[in-house]
Amino acid sequence: MGADTFSPDVNGAARFTERLAAGLVQRGHDVHVVAPNQAYRTAKPRTEVIEGEAMTLHRLPSVRWTPHDWLRFVWPWRAKHYARQVLDEVEPDVVHIQSHIVIGRGLARIAHERKIPVIATNHVMAENILDHTTMPKFVDDIVLKFAWADARRTLGLTRAVTTPTRRAADFLERTINIEGVIPVSCGIDRTQYTPVIAPREKNRMVFVGRLTAEKQVEVILKAMAKLDPALDATFDIVGGGDQRRSLEHLARELGIGDRVVFHGRTTDEQLRALLSRASLFVIASIAELQSIATMEAMASALPVVAADAVALPHLVHHGENGYLFEPGNIAELAARLTDVLTADPEEYARMQQASLDGVLVHDINRTLDTFEALYRDEPLPE
Question: Which end of the chain is less crowded, N or C, counting CB atoms within 10 A of the terminal residue's CB?
C-alpha cells in the first residue's frame, strides 16, 4: 500500500488505510505500507503495530510542509527511485495506492512498468490541498489544473479506481473524465463503539476532525452562539489543526468560550467516551468524500446535523437520522441544532436508531471483502 498520509497522522485517509491494512493482516495477508517517515532520513523497513496488528512499514525520507501543522511529503523527483527499491524488495502481488500525489504516483508508474496490478483509492480533493498554500489565487488555479491532469494520468494506469461514496465517484468521473469509479465505503468496526439509546441529561454537541479551513468549524461556533441560552448547550471539539488558535479566539469573542472545550488529539478510548455521552454530532465541512468521523458518530447512536455538501448527504438523511443544512448558513444550522436538542424522547430515540441502521452498510468486513475481490480480479460482492 502506498499512502501519502499514515499513522501518526490523524485524518480520514490515514485512518482508512490503517484499518484496511490491519483488517487484511487479520485475514492472513502479508501487508507492506509505504509512507512518509517523520524525519528526512532513510528508515529501514520495520514492523509496526497498527490498529493492533503487526505489519511492515517502509518509511521514506520526508520534509514538512511548513504552512501546515503536520503534513509531510516525499520529494516528488525521488518517488520513483523509492518505488523501485520497495518493489524490488517486496515483489508484491498487487499495489494499492491511497492517493495519486507523490508516493502513490511513483508506485503506480513503476508497478505499471513491471505489470504489477494497481488498485487506486482516491481520498483527495486537490482544492483542499490549496488551502495550505501561500500562493496567489491565479497560481493556485494553474496548479489545480495540472494536479487533476496528473491524477487522470496516474489513475489511468490502474486496474480499478475506488472512492468512498457514489457521490465522490461521480465527482471524480466528472472532474477527470474517467469511467467506472467504484464506490467502496471506508468502513468501520461497529463493535468498537458504545451506542446508548436514551435521552441525554445535558445538551452536548461534538465535532471530530482536523481543524482546517474546509471543515468550517467557525460556522458551528457562530450557530451555537445563536442557540437559546436555556438549552445550556456545550460543544466538544476533538482534533488539532492550524485553525485551532483562531477558533479558540472566536469562541471567546462570541461569549461561548466557557462552554466550548478543545480536546486536541485524543486516544480512541477518550473519543468513544465523548461520542457515547454526546447528544448530537455536528459537521459543517464542505469537502468530505465520506467522513469516517460521521460514521463513528452514527455507530455511537448519535443524530447528526451536517452540511448538505459532497458526500455528507450519503450518510445523513434529512429528517431521519438528523438534518442537513445549507453550507455556511448559520441561522439554518442553529435551527437544525435546536430541532435535535428539543426533540421529545420518542423522536430523539427514533433518530438514534436511524443512525445505527444507516451505518450497517458501512461494516468494515464488507469493505475488506470488496478489496480482496479487486486484488484478485474477481467479481465484486453485492
Answer: C
